[in-house]
Structures are given as C-alpha cells and as structure tokens.
Design goal:
The protein is of the alpha/beta class and about 300 residues long. It has helices at about 30-40, 55-65, 70, 95-110, 125-140, 155-160, 180-185, 200-210, 235-250, 255-260, 275-285, 295-300; strands at about 5, 10-15, 15-20, 45, 75-80, 85, 90, 115-120, 145-150, 165-175, 210-215, 270. The chain folds into two domains: about 10-170, TIM Barrel; about 175-308, NADP-dependent oxidoreductase domain (TIM Barrel, Alpha-Beta Barrel), CATH 3.20.20.100. Strand 6 and strand 7 form a beta hairpin. Helix 4 (about 95-110) runs parallel beside helix 5 (about 125-140) and helix 5 (about 125-140) crosses helix 6. The two termini are about 35 Å apart. Pfam families: Aldo_ket_red.
Length: about 300
C-alpha cells in the first residue's frame, strides 16, 4: 500500500480510500468483514457522508468495528455535508454545517473528523458563513482539516478567499472511462467534443494549489450508468486491453483500473465504493503498481479517447 502525506496537513494516508456509501446494505458481520479487510490490506482512509443511507452508513460503520479510541487512532476519518437529501437542495449555511458535523460525530462515535468535505456546491453559498463554520469546528476540535467535493476552481477560490483554513482535498468523479479532467488538455484547440473544457481544468488547478484529488466511482462510466469493467458490449477494446495488461502483471482487471488512476503524478486517491471484500483486495494490488507511460496511454486510447 502506498501512503501519501497530504499537503498542508499532518496526515499520512493510504492512496486508496474505503468509501462507505452502501455500508448500510450489509449486516453488521458483513460490514465488519469489509472494514477489517480494508485495514488488513493497509487502507487507513475512510470516506463517509451524512446522506449515505440517511446516516445509517455512519452508524453501521461505528457499530461494525465497535469504535473505540484504539481503533480510532488507526484511522483517517473523512465525511461530507451540505446536501439536504430529503428536501433535495444544498445548504452551506453555518447552522447546517455545524449541526451536520455534530450528527456525524455522534453516529461515528468519535470526537473529531480528520477531514470535512462540502459535498456539492451550493449556489446560495455565503463564504463568510462557511468560514465562520470552519472556524467554530476547528476551534472546538471537531474537525482538523477541510475540503470540498465536486467543486470547480472558481468555487474553491471563493471559499478560500474568506477562510484561513486551507482547502486540502477535492473529490470528483474520475475513472478510466470518465476522464473529462484530462481530456481537454490533451485535445486542446482541436474543435472536437474531447476538446471541450467541462471542469475549468480542475485537475491542473488542484496540482497548482496543493489540493489532494480523490476519485469517486473509479470503476464506473457516465452518470451512475454502471461499471465499465466487464462491460464488453460498450467497452470491448478497453476491457481487452485491461485484460492484456493485467496478465502481464499477474493481477486482476480491477487492479489495473486502479493503477491507471494511481499512476498519475497528481497522487490521486481512489475511493472504493465496493461492498465486496475480494474487490478491495484486488484494488489494493493497484495501489503501488506503476504502469509504464506506454501502458497508461494505451489504456486511455482504448477507452475511446484521442491522443493527437
């Protein structure tokens, strides 16, 4: 397992993150097996959100591992807030952020979060109120560091202008079959669909500002359209290429899909949303598997992208 010191923090984290969006679907025993498997494989970074299972995923996590100080000290806990899922709108008000963290801590049975992410951009954001919330949470010891999810550069700049707390992470959708974050840079000024800059060069921006990137849905394509691994009808060439390279390294296709992300010099973290312990083991083989430059581009082209 590869570990990375997050910039502007004192956190040494695994480059693979266990995501817990579906944990409530598992029994306590199944959830414990999944978490213990991740830890045994070297994962120390765990991602949550207050809306996952309407809070039940955080509760199941704490119950499954019988959260206590000894276990807590072995983990980097991250959670997200800012979405009112029942009412279907976003809320970055100070009251909602602070209240959400109190609920998260209660459900996770811990006194603090290592990282709090603002889940999706709120068009009605008042950055001074977000800054006040960050200050209150940091002073009280409830949150050590802050970040965002699904934010573009201007949205990050707006928040950062009003708070002294460094934005240390941004979690976006990214996979071998979902690559807008790099497509336009490769096909600059070509007048084709791939040349369209859909995210204001968020990956380059985060590298320039020492903001850690986290990739959610690393094995999915489109907007929750399903996995590309094994989907030989829609991605025949990609799956064939993945299989070929996997055989070269004697690993699974999952490991290669993981390694394609971790190969990027931005040190992108891979958020594993699987509930399958074997899939976690397979992905962990890609944590520090360094694909060659030729292999990386071969996979990128096999996904249907142009390299001019």
């Amino acid at each position: 397992m590869k570990y990375i010191r997050l910039k502007h923090t004192e956190l040494d984290v695994s480059n693979l993150i266990m995501g817990n969006m579906r944990l409530a679907q598992l029994s306590l025993r199944e959830a414990e097996t999944l978490i213990r498997t991740a830890m045994d494989e070297g994962i120390n970074f765990f991602d949550h959100a207050d809306i996952y299972g309407q809070g039940r995923c955080e509760e199941r996590f704490a119950e499954a591992i019988q959260m206590n100080q000894g276990i807590r000290e072995k983990m980097i806990l991250q959670s997200k807030c800012g979405i009112r899922s029942k009412e279907n709108y976003y809320d970055f008000s100070k009251e909602h952020i602070v209240g959400s963290v109190d609920g998260i801590l209660q459900r996770l049975k811990t006194d603090y979060l290592d990282i709090l992410l603002l889940h999706r951009p709120d068009p009605l954001v008042e950055p001074t109120k977000v800054a006040e919330a960050f200050d209150a949470l940091h002073r009280s010891g409830k949150v050590r560091y802050f970040g965002v999810s699904n934010h573009n550069p201007a949205q990050i700049e707006l928040l950062q202008k009003f708070t002294p707390h460094k934005i240390v992470a941004n979690q976006i959708q990214f996979s071998l079959a979902h690559t807008p974050a790099i497509d336009s840079g490769i096909a600059l000024n070509m007048g084709i669909d791939q040349s369209i800059n859909r995210d204001s060069s968020i990956l380059d921006y985060c590298r320039l500002h020492d903001i850690s990137m986290q990739a959610w849905s690393p094995f999915q394509h489109g907007s929750f359209e399903g996995p590309f691994l094994g989907n030989t009808e829609k991605f025949p060439e990609l799956n064939k290429t993945i299989r070929s390279i996997a055989e070269t390294y004697s690993v699974t296709d999952t490991a290669i899909a993981t390694a394609w992300i971790t190969r990027h010099p931005a040190n992108i973290h891979v958020v594993l949303g699987t509930t399958n312990p074997q899939r976690i083991k397979d992905a962990c083989k890609g944590s520090d598997l360094s694909l060659t430059r030729e292999e990386w581009y071969r996979l990128y082209k096999a996904a249907g992208n142009i390299v001019p």
